[in-house]
Design a protein that fits this description.
With 320 residues, this protein is an alpha/beta fold. It has one domain: Alpha/Beta hydrolase fold, catalytic domain (Rossmann fold, 3-Layer(aba) Sandwich), CATH 3.40.50.1820. Helix content is 31%, strand content 22%. It is built from eleven helices and nine strands. A nine-stranded mixed sheet has the order 1-2-4-3-5-6-7-8-9, sandwiched between helices. Helix 6 links the parallel strand 5 and strand 6. Helix 5 packs across helix 6 and helix 10 packs across helix 11. The radius of gyration is 19 Å and the shape is globular. It starts with a helix and ends with a strand.
C-alpha cells in the first residue's frame, strides 16, 4: 500500500530500490546436518543443526538459541529463509533447558519442571554453549576433511534467540551484569533478541547502556510467557536503554509470545497473524544483510521506508 502510494505521487521511496529481503531464489537448495559439539572440559554435549546453502563458498554465520523447553528443531522457518538468503545458520540445543525438561514429565508436572529449569545455572550453561560452539566451528571450518570446511565466514557472526534464547543472546552480545559484560563474546557482530528481557533489580540503562554492536529487538503487544517475570511492558524497557547507533525495535500488534516460533504455545488466546512471520523474516534478513554483509541497499531499506511496506497499521517500528 505504502509503495504504490508513493509511486502514484511520483515520489521516490527512500531505502526501497530493488532490494527485497523476502525474495528467495534458491529456497530448495538448502541442506541440513545434525552435529554434536562435545565439550570435554564441561563434560557436556551441545547438539546443533546447521542449515547451509548448497552453493559453494564461505557464508556469514547466524547462531540461534531456542527458548525454554525448545530444541534445535524449532523455528525452522527462520533458519530455512536465512540459509536460502546465503547464511550458514546454526541452531543450538541447550541440554537442561531444552525439550527434555518436559517431554518425559507427566502433563500436570510439566509447567513445574519448566519453572525449575529456568534458573541461573542453565543461563550460565547457555552462555558457555555459545562460546564452545563458536570455538568448534572455527576448528571444523579449518579442518579439510570436515563437511563444514571452508563454508563459514567466522569474521561475520550474528546471534539471535527467542525468550530464554533472547536472554542468552543479550548476555553474549553486550548486556552488563554486576558492572561487567562478563559473558560478551567479541566474535559476535550483530544480535537479534526476540522477546527480550529487562532486569528486574537493575536499572535497564546500566544493563544495556554500553551495548556496542547493532541490536534489533522484536516483541509483541501481547508478548507474555507462562514462565518468568517478563510481560509486554518489561520487554519494552530494553530499547530505550540502548545507546544510539544501529539499534532497532519491532513491536508486532497483537503478537503473543509464540508469534516468533513456528507453532502455537499453551495459553495462546487468539489465532496467529500470518503477516507476523512475514515481517519477522523481512526485517531480520535486512538486519543481517546490513550488518553481517555490509550491504548498503539493505541498510537503506532498513533505515528508510522499507519496513513500512511490510508492517501492518498497528505495528510499531523505531530505530536510533
Amino acid at each position: 500500500m505504502f509503495t504504490s502510494l508513493f509511486a502514484c505521487l511520483g515520489v521516490a521511496c527512500p531505502g526501497l530500490a530493488d532490494y527485497d529481503p523476502l525474495v528467495v531464489r534458491d529456497a530448495d537448495r538448502v541442506t541440513t546436518m545434525d552435529l554434536t559439539v562435545c565439550d570435554e572440559a564441561r563434560k557436556r554435549d551441545v547438539p546443533i543443526r546447521v542449515f547451509l546453502p548448497t552453493v559453494a563458498g564461505a557464508r556469514p554465520v547466524v547462531l540461534f538459541s531456542h527458548g525454554l523447553g525448545g530444541s534445535r528443531e524449532g523455528s525452522a522457518y527462520l533458519a530455512r529463509h536465512w540459509a536460502a538468503r546465503g547464511y550458514a545458520v546454526v541452531f543450538l540445543q541447550h541440554l537442561g533447558s531444552d525439550e527434555s525438561v518436559w517431554r518425559n514429565a507427566r502433563p500436570l508436572d510439566r509447567l513445574a519442571a519448566m519453572r525449575r529449569a529456568a534458573n541461573a545455572e542453565n543461563f550460565l550453561l547457555r552462555t558457555q554453549d555459545v562460546a564452545v560452539v563458536l570455538d568448534r566451528l572455527e576448528r571444523w571450518n579449518a579442518a579439510r576433511e570436515h563437511a563444514l570446511a571452508g563454508r563459514l565466514d567466522l569474521d561475520r557472526v550474528g546471534m539471535s534467540g527467542h525468550s530464554f534464547g533472547a536472554v542468552t543472546t543479550q548476555a553474549v552480545s553486550g548486556q552488563v551484569f554486576a558492572g561487567k559484560a562478563r559473558y560478551t563474546d567479541s566474535r559476535i557482530r550483530a544480535a537479534l533478541p526476540m522477546s527480550p528481557s529487562s532486569p528486574q533489580t537493575v536499572n535497564p540503562a546500566r544493563a544495556f547502556g554500553k551495548v556496542a554492536i547493532p541490536w534489533m529487538l522484536m516483541t509483541g503487544t501481547r508478548d507474555v510467557a507462562a514462565i518468568g517475570d517478563q510481560d509486554a511492558a518489561s520487554r519494552l524497557k530494553v530499547f530505550p536503554a540502548l545507546p544510539k547507533g544501529s539499534k532497532y525495535e519491532l513491536v508486532l500488534d497483537g503478537a503473543e509470545h509464540s508469534a516468533f516460533t513456528d507453532r502455537g504455545l499453551p495459553g495462546d488466546r487468539q489465532p496467529r497473524n500470518p503477516n507476523h512471520h512475514r515481517a519477522i523474516l523481512a526485517l531480520s534478513t535486512a538486519f543481517w544483510d546490513a550488518y553481517l554483509r555490509d550491504d548498503p541497499e539493505a541498510r537503506a531499506w532498513l533505515d528508510g521506508f522499507g519496513p513500512r511496506t511490510i508492517l501492518e497499521r498497528g505495528d510499531r517500528w523505531q530505530r536510533k
